[in-house]
Amino acid sequence: MVNIKIDGKRIRAQDGETILEAASRHGIEIPALCHHEAVEPWGGCRLCMVEITKKAWEGWSRLVTSCLYPVEEGLEVETASERVMASRRETLDLLLARCPETPKVRDLAAEYGIEETSYRPREEPDDCILCGICTRICASLGHHAIVLTGRGPAKKVDTPFNEPTDACVGCGACAQNCPTLAIPMREMNGMRTIWGRTFKLIPCESCGRTFITEEQVQHLCETEGFSPDSFNKCDACRRKEAAATFSTIVKW
Amino acid sequence: MKYRMRVTPQRCIGCRTCELACAFSHPVEGVGIGQSRVSTFDMGDDVFIPLLCLQCEDPACVKACPVEALVRNEETGAVEVVEERCIKCLACVPACPFGNMYPAGLREPVVKCDLCKGQPKCALFCPTRALEYLPV
Q1: Cβ within 8 Å, pair A238-B98
Q2: Based on the domain organization, do A138 and A224 belong to the same domain?
């Protein structure tokens, strides 16, 4: 256990956890856009900046990303000091220039009193905030189908060389977790289209409802050792089947 | 003390009170009631089978989860979904051989029986004790 102070409140934090984790466990809110519990933090959005100091630092303080900075004994954290707010406002101002029409960014910016960006808004508005949640989730699933490509203003999330890739299995986890709904995924006539590829969805053997792509099944069979037969029914039909089996086992 | 859910289908009268109790005790924000994690099946001839997560010893859902969003609560014995960690890949849904993982919809974490953190409402409301939560 480590004793720290966040906004003047004494907190006992766990060894090795980050400032953001300790704060959220104690109900102290720090805004963050690129944070997702499932993947490693990477300090991309710069919104979770906090000001830290220690007694021994004799009045000196610094700004750090709370999602990456591990707690240490005697740390004093300010989550809403003037310096923090200025940094956050600047980040949101820039984000708003990139995504002037994205509701999530607009709402967050408005909370900090920014209605319009002071920079020149991007000519082709983009909903992607480059938080990297999609790319990190894709990597954690073992696909590595999408990555952050390019530098500076040309930076974007894309498949390698902007071409449809075999690495993608069409699971749609990237689109499902995108905080700003920036990744288009379409489902029509038993087909799912994402990242320039169209995947065939397997229909349930008994009810015909589609629920998983062929490539996803193949990936799960290869990595987790499932048999392909275990994916021929949807969850509802599987329950029916299980109930039928149980009814034959039970002695009446 | 450790508790286990005991299901006695012979006592089930198919009233679906368990489903209601479950749906009402897992409300969805803005909607009110949530998805029930227990389903009762009418097999004909007055045979009813209440089906809920078996909290398997070696769960296929946990094995399928790529981000460790499914963890066993040692106190209740239930395998629970850590909602913030779930990446909605739905790998656990087809993985469960009994179909007891419920996809809750687009951009929503998967739902499953969590034994109501040790006080299962289905067992509490079951009028015929077809569902019982008993000390082992």
Answers
A1: yes
A2: yes
